[in-house]
Amino acid sequence: MQRSGPGALDRVFTRLVPLLGAILLNGCSSVAYYGQLAEGQFQLLRARQPVAQVVADPATSPQLRSRLAHAEQARVFASEQLKLPDNRSYRVYADIARPYVVWNVFATPELSLQPVTHCFPIAGCVAYRGYYQQGAARGAAALMRQDGLDVYVGGVEAYSTLGWFDDPILSSMVGWGDERLATLIFHELAHQRFYVQDDTEFNESFASFVEQEGTRQWRAARGLAAIGENQGRQRDQFIRLVLASRERLQAIYAGPLDDAHKRLAKQAEFERLRREYRQMRDGQWGGDKRYDAWMYGPMSNAKLLPFGLYDQWVPAFAAVFREVGGDWLRFYQRVEQLGRLPIEERKAALQRLVVSL
């Protein structure tokens, strides 16, 4: 297997060592956690190979060769048409031999939808903690549950280092089909294009919009029909259903009930969510069960958290895109203007964009 050369590894150490030095000031628990992050990232970078080399290798399976060739086309489209960064990210490949690159642990208080946040030297404060080993994520989640927190663990197929490294296409990205691979590339490059520290909702909603609109344009450019209207409508309805449940929970937690009655109301709300889902699934959707596994798994505040993080402001960014006539460069300029606002002003501006729809 082709490895990164000595010069590339030197650059890795040049970037990682100052961060680890700062981490040492935060105590032993931080050293252990950041140590696994540094080791996981370093192993991932060592595994990278140029996509062209993997495609040309006779030992590469026909399926992987086809997926990577498709990814190369999507990567060119991302830079030329979507005006996303033109660099070596997603022009290299890494086989990580596991289904997800990291497992994110989300947590909230028992009677709140406010995420437990974690602050990092580069990314700022985010609403989750990532682990390269599933067992480590589950162990961290168990400790949080012992502290009385609601916890949810979710696998992640890809992530962005925000341009610090040449992010690879991962083997965890290629198993879901050609289109999913393209959407992941669009999403992660959007994080490289613009990122605001300490505002997960803004960053993930922005990247989700770029992913969705980029996928629409990518399909159109290849002469494919838009994503099935029925499928898109079901996804939107499901998201609205979950977000409505979040709003009702927020009202419960902010209301006058004592904690015991809030707990009862919380469980009643989860049952209402499942009941409304069943009615939608068996009625409007004709029995389509694509969301059953998620809905009927253990439910918690933390499980609902990613919906607010990844989807809350997508309509606002869609409004901005329409206002600039679909011009990607003007769109990014407007996004950067929003990102420079103080956080409360930023949220107010995004809310006005949503209301204007």
Q: What tags apply to this protein structure?
A:
357 residues, mainly alpha, 2 domains, three-stranded antiparallel sheet, 8 strands, disordered N terminus
- SSE arrangement, N to C: HHEHHEEEEEHEEHHHHHHHHH
Number of strands: 8
**Unreliable spans:** 1-28
Helix content: 55-70%
User: How big is the Rg?
Assistant: 21 Å
Largest sheet: 3 strands, mixed
Q: Could you state the oligomeric state of the chains shown?
A: single chain
Topology (SSEs and partners):
Layout: H1 6-23, H2 28-46, E1 49-50, H3 51-56, H4 62-80, E2 92-94, E3 102-108, E4 118-120, E5 124-126, E6 129-131, H5 134-146, E7 150-156, E8 169-170, H6 178-193, H7 200-221, H8 229-254, H9 259-282, H10 292-295, H11 301-311, H12 314-323, H13 328-340, H14 343-355
Parallel strand pairs: 2-8
Antiparallel strand pairs: 1-2, 3-6, 3-7, 4-5
Helix pairs in contact: 1-2, 4-6, 6-7, 7-11, 7-12, 8-9, 8-11, 12-14
